[in-house]
TrEMBL record:
<dbReference type="InterPro" id="IPR004045">
    <property type="entry name" value="Glutathione_S-Trfase_N"/>
</dbReference>
<dbReference type="InterPro" id="IPR036249">
    <property type="entry name" value="Thioredoxin-like_sf"/>
</dbReference>
<feature type="domain" description="GST C-terminal">
    <location>
        <begin position="91"/>
        <end position="222"/>
    </location>
</feature>
<dbReference type="GO" id="GO:0006749">
    <property type="term" value="P:glutathione metabolic process"/>
</dbReference>
<feature type="domain" description="GST N-terminal">
    <location>
        <begin position="5"/>
        <end position="86"/>
    </location>
</feature>
<comment type="similarity">
    <text>Belongs to the GST superfamily.</text>
</comment>
<dbReference type="Pfam" id="PF02798">
    <property type="entry name" value="GST_N"/>
</dbReference>
<dbReference type="GO" id="GO:0004364">
    <property type="term" value="F:glutathione transferase activity"/>
</dbReference>
<dbReference type="GO" id="GO:0009734">
    <property type="term" value="P:auxin-activated signaling pathway"/>
</dbReference>
<dbReference type="InterPro" id="IPR040079">
    <property type="entry name" value="Glutathione_S-Trfase"/>
</dbReference>
<keyword id="KW-0927">Auxin signaling pathway</keyword>
<dbReference type="InterPro" id="IPR010987">
    <property type="entry name" value="Glutathione-S-Trfase_C-like"/>
</dbReference>
<keyword id="KW-0808">Transferase</keyword>
<comment type="function">
    <text>Is involved in the conjugation of reduced glutathione to a wide number of exogenous and endogenous hydrophobic electrophiles.</text>
</comment>
<keyword id="KW-0963">Cytoplasm</keyword>
<dbReference type="GO" id="GO:0005829">
    <property type="term" value="C:cytosol"/>
</dbReference>
<dbReference type="InterPro" id="IPR036282">
    <property type="entry name" value="Glutathione-S-Trfase_C_sf"/>
</dbReference>
């Protein structure tokens, strides 16, 4: 896979949202230049302000000189621009269903995980309960399947993919436990299969790097609250 001069990905290796784009591009066989950012660096911050002035976050792709941000938006753009090796189903109803579950993950489930991660006491317990409810819904979706996309990794797998690796460190740093292989055996089987796929495995950041990022988020939240 040769690097393309007209396609750049601006992100961090530890970012679960950046990795979605890495996986999609590699699964489609699309070359790109990776511009790694150090979020603590002023130069990186200035670049993100320039490329993504609304959210100032990674990931951002720059294609033909034009920037595009937000991982779900970028995934849709990649799918439409390079339709070879499709990630979304061809059937319109199944495509709509895939988009529904992607929005569930980045909406309701992600917010529940944040609540469990950052909160304490009763509020934290409510967050953990909501996370467990979300995991049960995913368990039902993956039951009887190898991947959410069927026999191969698809759009939903890429969006849910952070649960396969990052979520264990969200639990560890956030001091809660929701994932249980006995309660969610099909989801657990998917996790083990997903992270063993070479394209996925080769892109994963180290546990230490991921935990350092999450600890930074936690410390910043505590400092802001005091």
């Amino acid at each position: 896979m040769e690097e393309r001069a007209d396609l750049k990905l601006v992100g961090t290796k530890e970012s679960l949202f950046t990795q979605r784009i890495v996986w999609a591009l590699k699964l489609k066989g699309i070359g790109y230049e990776f511009i790694e950012q150090d979020i603590s660096s002023r130069s990186s911050t200035l670049l993100l302000v320039e490329l993504n002035p609304v959210y100032k976050k990674v990931p951002v792709i720059v294609h033909l000189g034009k920037p595009l941000s937000e991982s779900l938006v970028i995934l849709e753009y990649i799918e439409e621009t390079w339709p070879l090796n499709p990630l979304l189903p061809l059937d319109p109803l199944n495509r709509a269903s895939a988009r529904f579950w992607a929005r569930f993950i980045d909406g309701k489930f992600y917010e529940a995980a944040k609540k469990a991660f950052f909160s304490s006491g009763e509020t934290k317990a409510e967050g953990v309960e909501s996370v467990a409810e979300g995991l049960l819904l995913l368990e039902r979706q993956i039951t009887g399947k190898k991947f959410f996309g069927g026999e191969k990794i698809g759009y939903v797998d890429i969006v849910v993919g952070w649960i396969a690796y990052w979520f264990q460190y969200v639990e560890e740093v956030g001091e809660f436990k929701a994932m249980d292989s006995k309660k969610y055996p099909f989801l657990d089987a998917w996790i083990k299969t997903f992270i063993q796929v070479p394209i996925i495995q080769q892109s994963l950041p180290t546990p230490e790097a991921v935990k350092a990022v999450f600890k930074g988020f936690k410390d910043a939240a505590l400092a802001a609250a005091n």
